[in-house]
Amino acid sequence: MRVMATSMHDAAFGAKAPDANMPTPFSTRLIRTGGLTQQVLEAGPENSDAPLVLLIHGFPELGVSWRAQVAALAQAGFHAVAPDMRGYGGTDKPARTEDHTILHLVGDMVDLVRALGRTTCVVIGHDWGAPVAWHCALLRPDIFTAVAGLSVPFQPRRAGGPPIPAMAALSARLGKGELYMRQFQAADAHVAFETDVTTSLRKSFHTYDGATPAERQSTGFIAPGQTFLSEVADDATLPPWMSPDHFAEYVAAFTAGGFKGPLDWYRCLDLNWFLTAFVQGQKIHQPALFMVGDRDPVRHYAGQHEAGLKDWLTGLRSQTVLEGAGHWLQQERPDEVNTALIGFLRGL
User: Fold this and answer.
1) Which residue of the set 92, 127, 209, 264 is catalytic?
2) Residue 1 predicted with pLDDT over 50
3) pTM (predicted TM-score)
4) Residue 206 a catalytic site member
């Protein structure tokens, strides 16, 4: 489905910086891969000389969260592809919780690269998409030749046991309440999000945004008797970067597809730990980049891994903290993210 009819910018690898005034022709299409049908947003030259870049979204997002990056990368001469991930948007939604493990998600990206007629690509992920991107690089370095993560640093498999019990111990030690990911383990946790999709999404974007005052941001820890959604004020507003039309895209997608699949990713956290024993202690050696906002609430519970990132990413070329930015990095600060990503890609 062509959503803008205009000529393709014939930028070559290493060409001049993208022209923000030049329209970019996005395409949205369904691609049947080995395991499922994936909906992708894409732009840029599709010939073999144009490097392929996959952009993996997180929760509660969609491929369209990368629209600014797809446009900028396409103008810079890359073939940029942002899929709706398994369980989201226009992509298939397997019914079984156990079909949402990290191995399934990495496999989906391997299949997508193949379906696009390529053998290698660069993978970039944000939020939950960052762990998928890190594991793409970790598990298939032959395919994923470079990797970038936004907001969530690489977290090596901990030898002491699966993560959910560890989260309970962390909450007890800090006395801050229950980490929201433990609440998401409940089989019916998605029902609360589906009761009022518009409010659920508005609260989710508000409480993790960089423009939200500190006292209204989430810490990730939920007080006794509260939930992820109930802790957010009812008068929460959309972030300043979120237009009504863009928000409507999210509301329509999650109204149609629900939240079970997206929350199943969280319900597989312990299963992921058991399935990945074979990579215990393994490092990522490809060129890597990491970016995070200094006001990103995720740093309350994942930020500890930022300090030792260079020990696990031996090819780390850039580690950047964007002042004043929150969690939705590629949408809050698209120009800075685009500049960093294009510089990283051209440096390869």
Assistant:
1) 127
2) no
3) 0.93
4) no
